[in-house]
What does this fold into?
Amino acid sequence: MTIQQESSRNRDRFSWLGVWDVTKFWWPVLKWEFWILLGYTLLVSVLAISIDTHVLALMWSLAVSPIAYAVMFASSLFGLKSMRERFITLPALNSEKLVFTLLWTFVVIPCISELIVNAVFYLYWGQSENEVLLRMIEAPDGVADMSMEHMTVFKYWSVAIMMCGMMTCLYCSTMSRSHNIIKGIGFSLLVYTIPSFLLGVLAGLVGYSLGKKGELTGNVNVEEAMNRLFDSMGIYLGGFCVVMLVYFVVMLTLYIRKFAKRQG
Amino acid sequence: MIELKNLSYYYGKSTVAALDNVSARIGNGVHLMLGENGAGKTTMLKCVAGLLLPTGGECVVDGVSVTKRLPSELARVFYLGVDDGAFMRDIDTMAKRHAPFYSRFDAEELKRNLDAFGLSSSQKLSSMSLGMRHKAMLAYALSLNTEVLLLDEPANGLDIESKMALLRMIAGKCDDEHTVLVATHTISDMETLYDGLIVMQANHIRLTAMTEEIAERFAFVRTLSKVDDSLYSEWRGGKMCSILPVDMADELGLESGPVDYAVLYGALHSPAAPEVIKYMTGPGRSDYKPFSNGVDYE
It folds into this structure.
């Protein structure tokens, strides 16, 4: 006897239930990264509030970098060969599959880390992650204060390169026909590191140029010198952000256009 | 009914076609796909499944192009490749997460199929041997009850008992609702099952024919010595197996056995192939239209 499981729903029309069905299809594979990321983020956040703030200021970047990489490479699992082929022929609309991949990559996974860290920080300190970190790195003597404005610019910058890395990983993992996961991780790492490297070189050049003009010497203290450097870098950072945004939009457009035509 | 209309496929930027302007009409029943390695069998199956989008032409299942990848169409076709590993932890998980997309999935049939193979649905697929995993996937694929089932080397790595079990399962699909395409090199495993034959060669479909049509045209005789004027002969199981035109077998008073696909395969890959095809596609055949890259072998 054939069990007729067909509901009255027309699968040839977009529905959020269809997106949910696609999510359920992927869940056995994706649940591991979901729970690991959730657990690690929670652990790091709880540890953060339980250790000395000076230590936290020094260790925080190191502690959160696995989260950043996990978020960036999250979509690489879409490149698993056996799942990828089944995903292409899965009887769901391409638009439902597309929405699922975008929501998972750019909403669900980043939200886990952002929400948990900020929720824990708010509950304990009543401040966001940025504000807490800013307050903490004020403390050591001789180290320049970083203004909230500069911190925010850097936050935008890090979000921009992160988004580009995530988009690259998603595109390569989904669209490539061989070595998807390696390509996804490899190219996203390139997209993530090259702008940071260029920015580092640029900071060196700007610092050198300011130093040559004598703007970082004489009566200028460290804090003031740093602020001058950050101010001079602002325009370049903004430019980089624009370039990254354009890259992201182009990649996203390509992804949407090519998604329905991907091959097994 | 599967219709291939001038179907072409090129992998990546390759200038060599994996499928070159192939046209065919394949009706319901179990069809055997034959062809040497690289002939285009897997590419054709993948095109029919919607996994590959043709570079040219189109593939139509019951009047609707699969290239549109509409869910209602994708749900009617299932492709099981030769190296298709398990894509989930166990068959239970597949039945829960993947099968709901297929409206005719039969959980009871899945259990029966797994029992026939001596497997359990909760067994971890990663802990199974390659052959066991393949059996589990076959059991699952057959229980989806899709109208079109595409099996690439289904009997590969199966022991004799499992081959018999698979034969029974596929035999259960021999009705007016199902089309099963079996691409294989091990013809004898399910020889009794086939309703039709598709021969691929050098990225073209060289021949399609129903079993009755073959039986109408050819006599498959087993003798102790070579039959003069036979189209093709080969030693098999201590007997000389020959293919000769039916009328000639009648004249010689030789009794024809059932269609021997293994011998036919040998004939189609021998210098006798043009002659065999000429007899297959020659005049007198009423309802069969030969297709082969637009070339009529008459």
